[in-house]
Design a protein that fits this description.
The chain contains 8 helices and 2 strands. Helix 1 crosses helix 6. It is elongated. The protein is mainly α.
Amino acid sequence: MHYSVNAPRRDERVKDGDEKVNTKEVIFEQALRIFSEKGFERATIEEIADQAGIAKGTFYYHFKSKSELFEFLLQQGTHILMDNTMTALQKGGTVVERLEAVINELLSFFQDYQEFCRMIFSEILGPAAAPTRWEEIFKPDRQKYLLPVIELIREGQEQGIIRNISPQTALQAILGTISTIAMTQIFHGEHF
């Protein structure tokens, strides 16, 4: 996952002579990979620092803790998803066309950001879908992201295009279906 982080000049390392590497970006990439493979609890700062090719002290220069890094990754990924979804909604068209655009964006996000999604499915849903400590971090952004889609469903109901059931229920049915498709691909390698 690529994050645009404006790091100070001293934060950049030179790799292979010319190529500058943003240390924070390397930490993000390695942490995301490790969190998606091992989960939050089993991942260690030492392993993240080692895989990023930095000293443990350099990790602490950027982040106070593993939790802070995880929370930052969670927020960044959520914002990418929200921005892409809002862009899909603003393309215009009929209710059906906008809903299709949102669904396609969600499917594309799950395809393009599989490590992030694996991390989310493992940590947010937790074992047997038990609530986790990260759910509270994810919840405010989730509500901001879902409200415009709920409004789109209401618009479709007013036009008689979408069945008159709770818009939240309709949205949960859509998201549940998309999540099942995404989890099947991410965890079992079956493509949609």
